[in-house]
């Protein structure tokens, strides 16, 4: 009897070991194929050189006042190409260690470098290696006019659902070369196609200057910039005119949460929501306007990636905006889309807490100091 029990125990141990080994094996395969927690266990080959170069350049110290970049190589005295430090405006010298006391602060514009330390801390999850043959064609999946990554679109929808800052269900998404391109795409889409009277484009003062500059610059027959929205509130002929109100909320330059000033059957609003993220403002409710613009420039700080998106309710507006982007630039660079996808994946980690906490704390510390 004792012998049978011993045998049974031994068999049980063997069974448990075998099941565990199989589980480990299956887990490894899943990871290699792209599932799991992304600890890929492939032996690296063609990426090794690029990875080593990226780490070599990233390791160059610029005293915390600049960075060296892989496309910022210059010839040194011996004729070799070496990556150099590109210093922030108030620092100089080969390693950006010299403070330049006479430097002027630029209060007119802003590059969102305040998030750079966050991305340095998250170097391992946010880097993207682009294969030499990555999406070389004009269209994706060999489908004509398909220029937007479905994967990126679904991550954007997931992001809005997580943050609760915009309703995307039942709405369309258009990608643009930054929200800058989408701003004009939206103005174009809302303007009358065959009308002798152009749409009047207005914005309530103080407004983001590019709204005016861009609308005037394109000087299209379908629309023209007409200044401060509040001046149109009590105009009797405003009721019969096509009016497009640009609403930036939170606003640049004053951070106010703004609402459209003008109402009426011929009034349409474009909401620039690029700052409607938890590191800039409290998110009281998901925004649900007919046209809302967002941008990776303000969400993650990657203004140089030139990636933005519009959430659009109306199908005909969506189609006109998509045609605008297609004819203007044939969509957004596939490399930018790939990078935006990777960055948004990092934002989604831990429910967005790490990046939004970092952004909020950094800005409130700067405000206090
Ligand atoms: C209110 C507002 N909208 C749009 C933009 C431009 O964003 P993007 O980089 O997506 O073109 C800016 C940039 O500063 C902005 O302040």
TrEMBL record:
It holds the Pfam family Alliinase_C. Keywords: Aminotransferase, Pyridoxal phosphate, Transferase. Its cofactor is pyridoxal 5'-phosphate. Residues 45-103 form the Alliinase EGF-like domain. It comes from the Eukaryota. It comes from Parasponia andersonii (Sponia andersonii). The lineage of its organism: Eukaryota, Viridiplantae, Streptophyta, Embryophyta, Tracheophyta. This is Trytophan aminotransferase. The gene is PanTAA1. PANTHER family: BIFUNCTIONAL ASPARTATE AMINOTRANSFERASE AND GLUTAMATE/ASPARTATE-PREPHENATE AMINOTRANSFERASE-RELATED, TRYPTOPHAN AMINOTRANSFERASE-RELATED PROTEIN 3.
């Amino acid at each position: 009897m004792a012998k049978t029990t011993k045998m049974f125990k031994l068999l049980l141990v063997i069974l448990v070991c075998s099941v565990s080994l199989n589980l480990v094996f299956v887990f490894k395969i899943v990871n290699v194929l792209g599932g799991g927690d992304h600890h890929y266990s492939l032996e690296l080959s063609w990426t090794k050189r690029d990875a080593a170069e990226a780490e070599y350049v990233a390791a160059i110290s610029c005293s915390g006042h600049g960075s060296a970049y892989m496309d910022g190589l210059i010839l040194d005295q011996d004729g070799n190409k070496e990556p150099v430090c590109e210093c922030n405006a108030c620092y100089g010298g080969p390693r950006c260690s010299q403070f330049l006391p006479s430097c002027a602060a630029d209060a007119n514009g802003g590059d969102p470098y305040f998030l750079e330390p966050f991305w340095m801390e998250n170097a391992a999850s946010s880097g993207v290696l682009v294969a030499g043959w990555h999406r070389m064609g004009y269209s994706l999946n060999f489908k004509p006019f398909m220029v937007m990554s479905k994967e990126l679109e679904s991550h954007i929808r997931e992001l809005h659902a997580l943050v609760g800052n915009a309703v995307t269900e039942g709405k369309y998404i258009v990608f643009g070369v930054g929200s800058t391109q989408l701003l004009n795409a939206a103005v174009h889409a809302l303007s009358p196609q065959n009308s002798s009277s152009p749409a009047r484009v207005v914005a309530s003062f103080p407004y983001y200057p590019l709204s005016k500059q861009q609308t005037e610059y394109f000087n299209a027959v379908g629309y023209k910039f007409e200044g401060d929205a509040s001046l149109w509130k009590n105009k009797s002929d405003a009721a019969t005119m096509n009016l497009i109100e640009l609403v930036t909320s939170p606003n640049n330059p004053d951070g106010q949460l703004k609402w459209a000033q003008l109402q009426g059957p011929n009034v349409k609003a474009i909401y620039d929501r690029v700052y409607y993220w938890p590191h800039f403002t409290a998110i009281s409710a998901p925004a649900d306007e007919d046209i809302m613009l967002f941008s990776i420039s303000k969400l993650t700080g990657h203004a140089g990636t030139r990636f933005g998106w519009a959430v659009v309710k109306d199908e005909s507006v969506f189609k006109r905006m998509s045609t605008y982007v297609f004819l203007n630039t044939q969509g957004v660079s596939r490399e930018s889309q790939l990078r935006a996808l990777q960055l948004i994946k990092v934002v989604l980690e831990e429910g967005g807490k790490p990046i939004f906490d970092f952004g909020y704390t950094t800005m409130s510390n700067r405000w206090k100091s």
